[in-house]
Every structure is written in structure tokens, then in C-alpha cells.
Amino acid sequence: MGGGDLNLKKSWHPGTLRNQEKVWKKERAADEERKKTEQLLKEKNEERQMLELQALSEAAGKQKKRAERLDWMYSSGAGGNQSMVDEDREAYLLGKKRVDKLIETGKNLDDVSGMDASAVFARNASTAYGITANTIRDTQNKVRDDPLLAIKRREQASLQAVLSNPLKVKEL
């Protein structure tokens, strides 16, 4: 009376259901990884073709040449006027504007009257696909969690407390 195959009791035997399941899962994972790689290659090829077409249109003079910069990484996705953004940055750096006030009041990002068509498309496309670098929530998180800004707020509060007290003002 043979009790069957003793190898089926071994943990390493390929005939056990547990080992077959492990092999099946590994094959599925490898297949999914291959599909992801193919998708990334496809996207990269599409991007390369778009850049080539853009370069051809720039060479033909149908489109203005754009400077290759890193500004896309820091763009807010709102499109619009770059000079207005520069003015806002300058005012903030000079201390004329406060970032937390801007966030609390919330700018109206739905106003597209002053934007050209490409800026509106870029804004809508970037927000539709969730690829904006600085969303409102992201900016709010940065302001809320910024330790230097918290220190500056405490300094301003203590300065206001001193200036609002007439006795301390006389001491100065």
C-alpha cells in the first residue's frame, strides 16, 4: 500500500497548490510589469513625436520659439499672465503682500477673460489630468507647514504686541 507521492509533502515541490499559486502570482506580476513598461515606452514615443512636430513648426516659422527652461516645473497651472505672477512675487519679496492673506481670500481662478487660448488650454489640460505643480491645496499645505513662516508670524505678533502697548513704546 503506497501512500502516494511523498514529494507532495515537501515545501519545495512544484506540484503543490501553494507553489503553483506562487508561480502564477509571479507570472502575473511580471506580465503587469511588462505592460507598464510598454505603456511608458508608448507615452515617451508620443512625447518625442510631439516635440519633433513642435520643432518642425518652429523651424517653418508657424510657431514662436520657446526657451527651454525649468519654469514648467514651478508653474501653477493657472496659465495667464506671467507679468502678473512676477509682480505678485516681487510684492511678496518686498513685504508688500502676504501669502497667507492671498490663500485665505482665494483668487478667482475661473476667470479666463484675460488669457489667450493656449493658456486656457494649458490650464484646463493640466488641471484635468492633475499635473499641476502648485495647486491651491498644495500651496496651503506649504504655508501651513512652513517653519520659517511660523517663526515670522510669531515675531510679527510680538512686535504688534509691543507696538500696541503705549508703556513699552515709551520705553523704546
Automatic annotation (TrEMBL):
Keyword presence, Cytoplasm: no
Any GO BP annotation: mRNA splicing, via spliceosome
Pfam families reported in the protein's UniProt record: Cir_N, CWC25
Record-level GO cellular component terms: U2-type spliceosomal complex
UniProt keyword terms in alphabetical order: Coiled coil, mRNA processing, mRNA splicing, Nucleus, Spliceosome
Subcellular location field: Nucleus
InterPro entries: CIR_N_dom, CWC25, CWC25_splicing_factor
Domain CBF1-interacting co-repressor CIR N-terminal: residue ranges: 11-47
Biased composition (Basic and acidic residues): 19-43
Location of the region described as Disordered in the Swiss-Prot/TrEMBL record: 1-43
Protein family according to the UniProt entry: Belongs to the CWC25 family.
UniProt-listed PANTHER family: CELL CYCLE CONTROL PROTEIN CWF25, PRE-MRNA-SPLICING FACTOR CWC25 HOMOLOG
Official protein name in the record: Pre-mRNA splicing factor-domain-containing protein
Organism this protein belongs to: Blyttiomyces helicus
